[in-house]
Amino acid sequence: MTLAIAFLASVVLTGCYVTPEASVHPSRAPHVVRVMASPVCAPLLIAAEPIFERNHPGVNLELSFGSDEADVDQTDTLIRDINAGADIDLFIAGDALDVQRLMRAPLWTRPWIGNYLVVVRAGPSDLTMGDLFEGTCEVAIGLPRSALGWRTEQTLEHIGALTTVYPRLGRYAGGMHIIERVRWQGGGNWGPDETAGDVLGIVYATDARHIRLRNRGSVRIIEQLPNVPGSPITHTFAPYTPAGEAMTEWLKSALVERMALDMGYVK
Fold first, then answer.
1. How far apart are CA 24 and CA 37, in angstroms?
2. Which domains does the chain have, with CATH numbers?
3. Single pTM value for the model
């Protein structure tokens, strides 16, 4: 209850809903905290949402993970909306690189939890890391503009595979699209040779784990890739209001941290 009061007080005492920016959204109730987050954070935030609302009566959490567009990364749609003046309390970037593309400056930015990239294949597939290093199959990765795509290329270069893999790269809008490509193309239904169409994918570890738990056997993780030294993948807070700042404190609590570690995120 104390934190709930703090959330409401942060809204009322600062007058953040009577500023010129807030007046553009007159229908918004002060007890709604709006969070826009990269889809890679979705499993954790969706699981945490009912706990937060149960523990903080009077405060509703509104989550958005961007628009699912075939040729645009979902995080890019969030950044586009934020830069256009979207009503927001807190942005959680999938990568510190995403924060650099915010034209509308947040109050501050700070690291939260981390992640890794993993190589996945379809359950029926027999592809190995040798196929990646030899360039014998398509490798599905994120779009060039996205943090996932950029990080993947950086990592492939770090492990000495980018030059070989580059001609076989397929670009897709985010981890879920990559995994769907791997699942369907690697299912053995693409020609007389069951492995003719097999695809490897490179996604965030938590995305792969989430799909594996929901659809057992549909994808398999065959390798965890190392973070590039000095450049770890870090999900990053970027609050825009005092209510957003208060939300970051709850997300950094021991309860949420335990949930994050159980889901495969890292400190």
1. 22
2. 2-115+232-262 (3.40.190.10), 117-225 (3.40.190.10)
3. 0.82
